[in-house]
Amino acid sequence: MNRIMMMFTAIVFATGAQAGDCSTSYNTMTLPDTPGELRIFAPYDYDNGRIIGQMRLGASGPVITGTWIESGSGVTCDSAVDGSNHWGAVTLQFNPGYTSFTGNWDYCGEGGGGKWVGEIGAGKVLFRGLTDR
């Protein structure tokens, strides 16, 4: 049974089609086509960025919690995550319709940081004027 579950998880992860362009305050991000209780690997077009974490279905809409990782940032962490010393915690709260999100990020899991917003299916129109890494 465990092997079947692992195969199912791999299929869901591998076939989690893109939700189109998700325009965010840190450029375009790739997200699953539909929300669910699943592991997330969400690359985004900012300094070789990616989010690794979990998506959960909450009462107010899907929530992603995990770690953002980039090639460089304003702070260098003492430890590496996924091969980089530029990382932090991230939480993205989606609306119930899974069309937009608001969230927060920090450096090295120590608080602080800034806001992160996005719109699914918004093309490549990028948000401007938010805290920059």
TrEMBL record:
<keyword id="KW-0732">Signal</keyword>
<feature type="signal peptide">
    <location>
        <begin position="1"/>
        <end position="19"/>
    </location>
</feature>
<protein>
    <submittedName>
        <fullName>Uncharacterized protein</fullName>
    </submittedName>
</protein>
